[in-house]
Amino acid sequence: IYLRAEYAKTVGSIIVMIDLVMGYTAIQSIAYCARENDMLLHLHRAGNSTYARQKNHGINFRVICKWMRMSGVDHIHAGTVV
């Protein structure tokens, strides 16, 4: 993921996109990297249903969004309304 961020900066991008499935520790680590390089961090919700689809013990996407903001993500792809 660090190579992706370095490449994005090299080609002039100001934003890096990551996926939710990479895990919370990795997300926070790349968030620090993005801050150090003056880049924005965009989170795609790929894998969200793994956490949210279970009605009895799932995690609501709103909670995941709050966790991601606390981890350093700048904006989140929330998907389409179906």
Descriptive notes:
The chain is α/β, with parallel strands linked by helices and 82 residues long. The chain has a single domain, classed as TIM Barrel (Alpha-Beta Barrel). Helices cover 46% and strands 16% of the residues. The protein has four helices and three strands, in the order H-E-H-E-H-H-E. It has a three-stranded parallel beta sheet. The model has no long low-confidence stretch (mean pLDDT 86).
The first-level CATH class name: Alpha Beta
For the terminal residues, how far apart are their CA atoms?
Answer: 31 Å
CATH homologous group name: Aldolase class I
SSE arrangement, N to C:
HEHEHHE
Q: What's the shape?
A: elongated
Low-confidence stretches: none
> In which order are the strands of the major sheet placed?
1-2-3
| Number of distinct beta strands | 3
Architecture per CATH nomenclature, i.e. the level-2 architecture: Alpha-Beta Barrel
SS summary, helix count: 4
Helix share bin: 40-55%
What tags apply to this protein structure?
3 strands; TIM Barrel; 3-stranded parallel β-sheet
In short:
The protein has a single domain, classed as TIM Barrel, CATH 3.20.20.
Q: How would the blueprint of this fold be written?
A:
Elements: H1 2-10, E1 15-19, H2 24-36, E2 40-44, H3 48-52, H4 61-71, E3 75-77
Parallel strand pairs: 1-2, 2-3
